[in-house]
Design brief:
Length: 335
């Protein structure tokens, strides 16, 4: 299950500005922002106010966008101490409008959100225990805010949902033999997970290092609810950990700080503690497999493989630890 290339919008900045002006009354200059399956533009108006105009994938149903909008409002209304983008209404008071691709006679949904200040974790050079603890605390509070949230569109099959990591496994054949053997071992461990013993809820599902915002040495914001899905709650923590550990000389030390803070605000069950490490590895393996697939079909888009090298580097580092090291760190952090 991969994203068809012809479903990704391909509009110009001028077209984005035309929609912003006509439907939102926003006039300014536009620049492209990266996205896996949608198209995003940063718009800066004459007063310096910033907005994000998001053109949805052709196949993104309106109910999915409504699901994301309502979840964002749920988190914003909670006391999670973590900012999320706000939906900017159209002139008519709607959450979205449409833009038409005249050449293909296809309509795409358009939303505008506020811009959040901060530096993405991927670019943050000064890290440490306090930073990772803030990420753990924020993700725990966000998961708590979404614990009882429901929506008719929440049960969907999504390629980045770790319950469906087998979809990524289908692309393992594109890897070199040694790397393929490594990810196959990871997926074999993933197959042993008993999902019925895990708590489930709606989760953000994509706290990667380009979606986590940092200010003054702590996490202050979370971007992009596009991968929102109903899944095992612990998957949200596993994904945050997979990306927080990237580029760390001592990734398990960073993980310990993050897990300890998460557990303090949203205690993990014993079974969630046991599956956490296999889920972290499954996210890294999935990222590697999808990167190989995306390079094969769309070699000119560097964003599609932005995490690939770092994911393999982290897998290499983690493999050098004794087999019992990571589970022991997780148990100690939750003690």
């Amino acid at each position: 299950m991969t994203i068809p290339l012809d479903s990704i919008p391909r509009f110009t900045a001028a077209q984005a500005l035309a929609v912003a002006l006509e439907d939102y009354g926003i006039e300014g200059r536009a620049s492209a922002l990266p996205s896996e399956r949608d198209q995003n533009f940063l718009i800066v108006d004459a007063r310096g106010a910033k907005f994000v105009l998001k053109i949805a994938n052709r196949n993104e149903a309106p109910e999915i966008l409504n699901f994301q909008n309502r979840a964002m409002r749920r988190v914003a209304a909670s006391a999670c101490d973590c900012r999320v983008q706000e939906i900017v209404p159209t002139r008519a008071g709607a959450d979205c409008c449409e833009i038409r691709d005249r050449a293909a006679d296809i309509r795409h949904c358009v939303r505008v959100t506020t811009w959040l200040p901060g530096e993405v974790l991927a670019k943050c050079m000064v890290r440490g225990t306090a930073l990772f603890a803030s990420v753990g605390a924020c993700m725990a509070r966000i998961d708590a805010a979404l614990r009882d949230f429901t929506h008719p569109a929440m049960h969907r099959v999504l390629q980045w949902d770790l319950r469906h990591a087998g979809l990524a496994r289908e692309h393992a054949e594109l890897l070199a033999p040694a790397r393929r053997a490594r990810v196959e071992h990871v997926f074999a461990e993933w197959e042993t997970i008993d999902w019925t013993r895990l708590r489930h809820s709606v989760v953000h599902n994509d706290a990667n290092d380009y979606n986590v915002l940092i200010e003054d040495g702590r996490m202050t914001g979370l971007l992009d609810f596009g991968d929102l899905v109903h899944s095992a709650t612990v998957c949200d923590l596993a994904i945050a950990l997979a990306y927080a550990m990237l580029h760390e000389k001592e990734p398990l030390a960073a993980a310990a700080a993050l897990i300890r803070a998460y557990h303090r605000h949203n205690p993990l069950t014993e079974h969630e503690q046991r599956v956490l490490y296999p889920l972290i590895l499954a996210r890294l393996a999935s990222s590697a497999c999808y990167a190989a697939h995306n390079r094969a079909r769309n070699p000119d888009d560097p964003y599609q493989v932005v995490t690939e090298a770092a994911a393999w580097e982290l897998l290499d580092v983690l493999e050098r630890y004794p087999h019992h090291a990571a589970p022991a760190v997780i148990r100690d952090a939750c003690a």
